[in-house]
Amino acid sequence: MFGTMMDNPLSITLIIEHANQIHGEKYVYSLSPDGKIHNYTYSNLYSRTMKLADAITQLGIQQGEVIGTFSSNNHQHLELCFAIPISGSVIHPLNIKLSPVQLSKIIREADDKIIFVDGMIYDKYVNLCNQIEGIYSIVFNLQNSQNELSCEYEKLLTNARDNYTTDIQDENMAMALCYTSGTNGEPKGVLYTHRSMLLHTLAVNQADVFGLTEADVVMPLVPLYHAMGWGLHYAAMFVGADLVLTDPINQHIIDLIAETKVTVAAGVPTLWKKLIPELLKRKNDVPSLQRIIVGGEPMPEDLIEIYEKELNIEIRHAWGMTEMSPTGTFSILKKKHQKLSDEEKYKIKALQGQPIPGVQLRLVDENQCILPNDGICVGEVQVKSPWTANSYFKKGLDDSLTKDGWLRTGDLATINEDGYMKIVDRSKSLIKSGGESISPMELEAALLKHPLVTDSSVVGISDEKWGERPIAVVAISDQDSDDISEILREHLSKDFPKFWIPDKFVIVEKIPKTGLGKTDKVAIRRTLDGVFTK
Ligand code: ADP
User: Is the CB of 409 within 6 Å of ligand 1?
Assistant: First the structure.
């Protein structure tokens, strides 16, 4: 027997309709090409978005067709991230950090019909243009208003009708396409639906997840191409919080936090590490900042301590994947943890945490047997949720899904009795030396604890005798330190068996990063392979 409830399609239209009707006076801040802060209200955003949706249909874009965006975080990109799906097409935020060759491959696979381009990064786009001939682009935000391209976006809006009504009949219609960051291989496309995105928004808007309220001012320092900016834009608007839009590379993040009184910000650990010295110097300028949501890579315990103890900013450490929209787990303290010492609390917060309500996690061994949640057994993490992908875009079903419908994450972890997950490593990154596994993630965490080390990455290089051997690539603060390899070897020897100690320590100025600020292991392996392969 069916129930007697309305069958309203779950669609992201509900978010912008609610933001407009109930929180129409709340603000979206972003940076103009002249560096000044641009602001307008959710009501302004709504009317421009509806016109843009109308303009997109007038351009002849059909339902289900894909539209690329090549843009920073700004108000036009926010308009696009509603207008494109509301018009029935699919937004595909392009990773602006990828090379033109990588991007053109992705654009061809996605079959982007047009690309909306942020004029502030037009010089980067130019390099891509000759690889994607025939794809029409629409530019906004060009600094030089003389340029005829600059008004193209605004002209579209001026000419559009403002009585657009959306027609999302089926909640399973695709609304956004995001590619994985390709940390360990080729990026793969994940096609979100209206339903999955709305359910993800509701899930992250719980008190023990993002915990946003109408009183918050939210600054997602996560590009939209990274799993739709972790869904923060949608989450913030649904609760009626103000939004501050900028990029992690902005040199004036702290000024912007101070000026707009940001209360919650989000980004990857590398960014929060980089900002520590300035934040420590200027902590009186940013009393509004209460909470930071951090994920994408492990957040080390010592960074959590600096933020919580010295800066009085709460850290919420999350784990997820593009395939999970992206939120999977959050490390939140339970009531029973309140009596623990600060150090014990930081240890729990450095775990990847418990599944958020709606997400199911399990650990399995190589034989697909389910392992106990005892905090000891290491297995592959498999997940299920209404906002998890069941296949990759244009790749169909592959072995990433188990026969009983769980997604294999490729992450290796333990789960303790309280359900807190600790990622040990990625199965693909594990180094197999003489049949034994070595975890690069554990070695990297140990290297980072040495005061001279500012960043590190450990990769496996093929070795005739052992199969693979670890090599550490290390950035250090004092380039003149004598015998740094010996110092680091000794440092690691305290905690690890001899065969774990990397054969070589390669000192570099900077560890290469992917577009998302994650360590680019593919690039590191490529560089090292020719040099050290024995
Ligand atoms: P890619 O797999 O190409 O890096 P994603 O950006 O989707 O693309 O990354 C998801 C992966 O990032 C996860 O499978 C996991 O390995 C890693 N990850 C995400 N958050 C964390 C975290 N808090 N701690 C450790 N690893 C994390």
Answer: yes
